C-alpha cells in the first residue's frame, strides 16, 4: 500500500484542492470559515479559530446547530490528541415512570420532553480555558456581529430553512412553539435566499456568554430564563441542571486501519460504530474502489457495526459491554466471517461483556481541531427561549423507554449521541481532522472518507466528492444519483434494496484538513453538497 505522502505529490493533486501553510478553516458556511480565519490572523491558534467558527455557525447556519445544542471535539496539541465530550445530560427530574404517567409510549421529537442540557457554550469555554491563546470575549465577536447586523441567506441554507419552516407549520402546535416562529420565521415564512436575516436576541445571548465566560448561560440570567420557560410549560430542564453541567475531557478511542490510526470520541457517541466497521473491513483486500465487491463489504460491515451500536452503546458507565470488547480483533473476525456474497439483515453479536455542523481547523504551529456541533434534527426541539435566540436541542429523543436497555432514559444521563468528530494519525504523526455530519450517516461517512483516503489514496476534496451510499435499515441502501449504475445493479443482484436518493443532504456534509508532516503544508477539502468553503492563508 502506498503511503499517504502520495497525497502531497504535486503531480497528483487535483486543481480544486486548497493548499496553505499558516492556517486553514474548513466548514459548511463561508462566513463562519472567514470568522475562524480572522481569528488565526489576529494571532489566535486552531483552538481559538474553532471556537469562533462554531459560535458563528450558530448564527449563520441555525438549521443545523445552535447555542442550545451539544458539541464534541478532538484536539491535537503538542504531539497529543485530546478528546472533549460536550454533550449535555438529561434533566435530573425526568424518568421513564413519569413519562408513562403522562401518557407517553415513546419519547417525542419536539417539545420539552426530549430537551437535554446544552453543552456547546460550555465546550467553547472549556476549549478556550485549556488551549486558547486569545481572550474568550474576542472569539465570539464575529458571531455577535453577524447576529446583530445580519447576513444574506446562502442557497443550501435557504433550502433547508424553508423546509424546516414548512414542516414546523404543520406539526408544531401550542403556544410554547410560537417563539421559534418569531425568531426563525418572522412575517410567517423562512428568510429567502439572498434575504438578510438577523437576531438581536441571539446577539445579546452571545454577548452575555462572551462577557461571563459562559456563567450567564449556566448559572446566571440566561439560566433563569430557560428555567422559567421550562416551568411555564411543564418541562423538566431546570436551572439546577444547567448549574451542575460541565463538559468532560475523555481519552479518544481508535482502531488501526491498514497502518493508520482512526480516532473517535468514546461512547456515548456513535464514533465506535465507525471504528467497529473499519475493524471488520481491515482484513479484506479491496483492490478496486468502484466495484460491487468493495461496496458490498462496506455496507455489510456497516450494518453489523450499527446493530451492535444500537444494542450496546450508551453513556459508557451504563454499558454492559466494554468498548475494548466491541473493538477486539477476535470479535471483529467473528463479525467479518458473517459477510458472504448476499446481503444480510443485521443482528447484534455477543461480544465478551465487561441537523449538525462539522468544522476543521489547523494553524501554522501544528495544532489541529476536529469539532462538531448540533441541535439534532435541524432546529432541535422546536423551542426557542423567548427573546434569547436559544433553540433548545432534542437529544433526549434518542433515549430508550425500555428500562432494561443500556440507553434507557434516566435523570442526569447522557443519551446515545449521533455527532462525532474524527481524526487520523500515522505512528506518532498527525494526519489531520475529518468529519461528515448528518445524523446516522455520520459513521458511514467516516468509514467512506477514511477508506477513500487510505485504500484509494484520494486527496481531501476527491475523498469528499466521491459518490456516497447510506444504509437505512434491513437491506435498504440509499445511493446518490451519480453512484455508478453498474455497481448499483450488481448490488441489487446480491440482495441489496438499492434506492436512488435525490436529496444531497441525505448523504452528510464533510470537511477534511490533512497536514504534510515534512513541510507543515495544509491540504483541505470541503463539502460540495452544501455551501461549504475553506478559508486559508
From TrEMBL:
<keyword id="KW-0378">Hydrolase</keyword>
<comment type="subunit">
    <text>This enzyme consists of two polypeptide chains, which are synthesized in precursor form from a single polypeptide.</text>
</comment>
<dbReference type="InterPro" id="IPR043137">
    <property type="entry name" value="GGT_ssub_C"/>
</dbReference>
<comment type="pathway">
    <text>Sulfur metabolism; glutathione metabolism.</text>
</comment>
<dbReference type="InterPro" id="IPR052896">
    <property type="entry name" value="GGT-like_enzyme"/>
</dbReference>
<keyword id="KW-0012">Acyltransferase</keyword>
<dbReference type="InterPro" id="IPR043138">
    <property type="entry name" value="GGT_lsub"/>
</dbReference>
<dbReference type="GO" id="GO:0103068">
    <property type="term" value="F:leukotriene C4 gamma-glutamyl transferase activity"/>
</dbReference>
<dbReference type="InterPro" id="IPR029055">
    <property type="entry name" value="Ntn_hydrolases_N"/>
</dbReference>
<dbReference type="GO" id="GO:0006750">
    <property type="term" value="P:glutathione biosynthetic process"/>
</dbReference>
<keyword id="KW-0865">Zymogen</keyword>
<dbReference type="GO" id="GO:0006751">
    <property type="term" value="P:glutathione catabolic process"/>
</dbReference>
<feature type="active site" description="Nucleophile">
    <location>
        <position position="356"/>
    </location>
</feature>
<dbReference type="Pfam" id="PF01019">
    <property type="entry name" value="G_glu_transpept"/>
</dbReference>
<comment type="similarity">
    <text>Belongs to the gamma-glutamyltransferase family.</text>
</comment>
<dbReference type="GO" id="GO:0036374">
    <property type="term" value="F:glutathione hydrolase activity"/>
</dbReference>
<keyword id="KW-0808">Transferase</keyword>
<protein>
    <recommendedName>
        <fullName>Glutathione hydrolase proenzyme</fullName>
        <ecNumber>2.3.2.2</ecNumber>
        <ecNumber>3.4.19.13</ecNumber>
    </recommendedName>
</protein>
<feature type="binding site">
    <location>
        <position position="439"/>
    </location>
    <ligand>
        <name>L-glutamate</name>
    </ligand>
</feature>
<keyword id="KW-0317">Glutathione biosynthesis</keyword>
<dbReference type="InterPro" id="IPR000101">
    <property type="entry name" value="GGT_peptidase"/>
</dbReference>
